[in-house]
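Two quick folds needed for the group meeting slides. Do the first one here.
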Amino acid sequence: MPDTLWHSPRTCGAWLAIPCGAAGAALLMLALVRVMGLQYATVPDRWLIFMLVLMLAALSLALLALESCGWQLCLLCLLPVGAALFYRVLCLDYCSYDYYDFLGPWTAYFRNNGGFAALKDSVGNYNVPYLYFLAALSYLDVPDFYLIKLFSVLFDIVLAWGGFRLCRLFCPDDSPRPSVAFCLLLLLPTVVLNGACWSQCDAIYAALLLHALACGLEKQGAASLALAGLAFSVKLQTVFLLPLWAALWFTGRVKTRHLPLFPAAFLAAIFPALLAGKPLPDILMVYAAQAKAYSALTLNAPSVYALFPGAVPAEASFPAALGTAAAGLLAAGVLLALFLNRRRVPQQALLAGGAVLAIGIPFLLPHMHDRYFFLADVLTLLWACTDRRRVFLAALVQTASLGAYYTYLKLERAFPMSVGALLMLSALLGAAWGLFRSLASPADRPQNAQERPRLHSRQRRAG
């Protein structure tokens, strides 16, 4: 055998991929050990949970293979995928107040009142697509506590896949950065904690939005609007990013004929609840009720109101109205900047505009919760994967957001809320500057998917 073969890039990659794959498999075996010690599960339940974890690992690798990643890259990614799932297994026994006070009782209500038949009743304050899942859980003789978390972990993987697709639009075909983005999203602390620890489901609407944005940038307008409509049917927080679809429209990436697909997808998502007998006004008023549920200007969110703790009464209406107006002006300003440059808006500027919206709107709006910067966490990380100059900005957002998570999960502050708000304000200013730069120098932007020929998947895999 020629000596040069041992020094070829493919062979060197194999030498690195095999130990990484072995280490990833070892982490999955450690996850088995941890699963066998879960506090609220019987032995059969534990084996089922472990099989679900293995299926999630297999899904991660299958999605990478679907995107034409070779076997070496898939083995390399097995290490971070195994680590991400192991960390999530460590969180599974944590019972958050959100499960204890809300998700658990809602699932119990479905279990005691006929499952899907109870969809017609007033259960919970989430929109009906997530309630379908809770109703389905009520038929299973498995602790819903763990299945609720694993359902969110499933969408963590779908979220990472959306990040892969978005990042790929800004990279050469042979770049490993999309795979890096996939792995980093799975390992991002707030993404790990949101579902596996907190029992929350922000990964669902965020995953749908990432795929919707990727479709929009690829000029697949029908899929983009349909996915955005589904995201809106899951969570009201979708509105933080929705203004960006106006920019996709006036830059020609989304066509006018595609616009009705947004409400059509929303109506399709709520249609099963209508069939079950739930009144349409009850469904349509869910988001209005959520907006009025809390009077505090900030609920541990690192928003502008955290800069002045105690200086403004918690129920003051004028600051709330002022913040709402400022959020509207911010969205209008981003759209105006993109509209004035609509004939030459680069893909990078649209990603930057999305980051500004995802940071700025929850920063300015009143009554924001601690996890409402989830979209900002994700988009700034992806921006950093496409442009190394944004790494510090992503670190600012993640630090501020993680501080809010720490407050909820540990019932103590890692640092004052005002510090988190200053970090988020700095990130907002940095994102706005990045948007300005991307619009001012479009000729310097990376070549994107619309401007270069795509290699056939077989050719990409052969490399």
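Then this one, please, same format:
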Amino acid sequence: MPKVGDFYESFRNNEFVLMIDGTESPGVTKVSGLSEGEHDTIEQPDGGTNHVYKIASAKIKFEPLTVERYVDGSPEDKRFKDWFQQTFKLGSATQGGSGVRKNGLIIKRHNGTPVLQFAFYNAWVKSSKFTDLEAGAGNPFKQTIVLEHEGLERVE
């Protein structure tokens, strides 16, 4: 973190890049769901008393990642479309489902220098949707992709 005088200035959240299978994905404007995991809580009553102990289960759950990106006719549009089509195999007798998985990184930068990285593993496309079409609107056309994954961790 950059030190300014006697305190450390927080990183700004607007400088990052998403990489999937080693390829940067330009046009990504937002990534949400950066959770390092969560344990379920098991409540264990103490017999004969009113006390309940809370203990962590052995299972770790991860939030899905939600990626927002601009649709601009770039090769990235085709990469995300191909991944979606591999997963859903529209018009096919069999579906791809969660079998089409990819690994990736979310790299947080500060003034162009990487300061934090999150790696996600075995992600697949859960859903893909687009912004509403509205006559007279001046907003860019966006795609929202939800990725389920098997783990997210901070890496060096």
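Slide caption for protein two: The first strand starts at residue 3 and ends at 4.
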